[in-house]
């Protein structure tokens, strides 16, 4: 599905090279196969993204998706948290990808939502619906939180919800997340930093870790490397 590939690109951390393909992005948003309202919403997001300087767009992405766990694009973080089950789930997902000839980049995590969407964009429609159906509750929660925070990224997440469930009705979830304690404030992130145990081994973050998928900055206010 072309739509999933488009959302994967727009939802990913905005590397500077993205601006070199602004025309292609806009053309993909104008795909006549999409409903007019959805085309307009996606085009509006792409235009807004391309109107920003890359560094400003990157900081906006980090503020939403990389500060706190509530908006994490790592799907297993919402399902397994830091439990041991997450490691086995990652291994199983990697095996599925490899079994269908889908290769990941060296620093990509298999449960990172844009990676999942890129994989699904190559799969049959029935398989896409099945996968999205299993994570629809996570997509709805992310969409409701993005709406509550007034983020333009809500458009992309709403589109995924619509693709997964056939509708977008987030009123009840909006009411619920409105009462959540934010985990992306400096105070909340300081608490996490103080409480989180030191980890060694395969899941320990490397020194070269960028503020990209799966690599959360140690403390709020630190600069990307």
UniProtKB/TrEMBL annotation:
Region (Disordered): 203-225
UniProt key word Metal-binding: no
Sorted UniProt keywords: Nitrate assimilation
Keyword Nuclease: no
Pfam families with a match to the protein in the record: Nitrate_red_del
Gene3D superfamilies registered for this protein in UniProt: TorD-like (1.10.3480.10)
Domain of life: Bacteria
Any GO BP: nitrate assimilation
InterPro entries (alphabetical): DMSO/NO3_reduct_chaperone, NO3_reductase_chaperone_NarJ, TorD-like_sf
GO MF term set: metallochaperone activity; unfolded protein binding
NCBIfam families, sorted: narJ
Name of the molecule in the record: Nitrate reductase molybdenum cofactor assembly chaperone
Gene: narJ
């Amino acid at each position: 599905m072309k739509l999933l590939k488009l959302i994967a690109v727009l939802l990913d951390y905005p590397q500077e090279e993205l601006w070199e393909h602004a025309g292609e992005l806009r053309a993909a948003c104008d795909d006549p196969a999409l409903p007019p309202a959805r085309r307009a919403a996606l085009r509006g997001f792409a235009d807004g993204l391309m109107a920003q300087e890359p560094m400003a767009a990157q900081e906006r992405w980090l503020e939403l998706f990389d500060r706190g766990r509530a908006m994490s694009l790592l799907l297993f973080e919402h399902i397994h948290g830091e439990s041991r089950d997450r490691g086995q789930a990652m291994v199983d997902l990697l095996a599925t990808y490899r079994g269908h000839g889908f290769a990941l980049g060296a620093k990509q995590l298999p449960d990172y939502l844009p990676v999942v969407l890129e994989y699904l964009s190559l799969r049959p429609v029935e398989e896409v619906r099945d996968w999205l159906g299993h994570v629809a509750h996570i997509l709805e929660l992310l969409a409701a939180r993005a709406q509550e925070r007034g983020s333009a990224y809500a458009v992309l997440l709403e589109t995924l919800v619509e693709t997964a469930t056939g509708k977008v009705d987030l009123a009840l979830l909006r009411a619920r997340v409105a009462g959540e304690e934010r985990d992306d404030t400096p105070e909340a992130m300081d608490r996490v930093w103080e409480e989180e145990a030191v980890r060694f081994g395969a899941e320990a973050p490397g020194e070269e870790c960028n503020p990209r998928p799966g690599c959360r900055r140690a403390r709020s206010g630190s600069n990307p490397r």
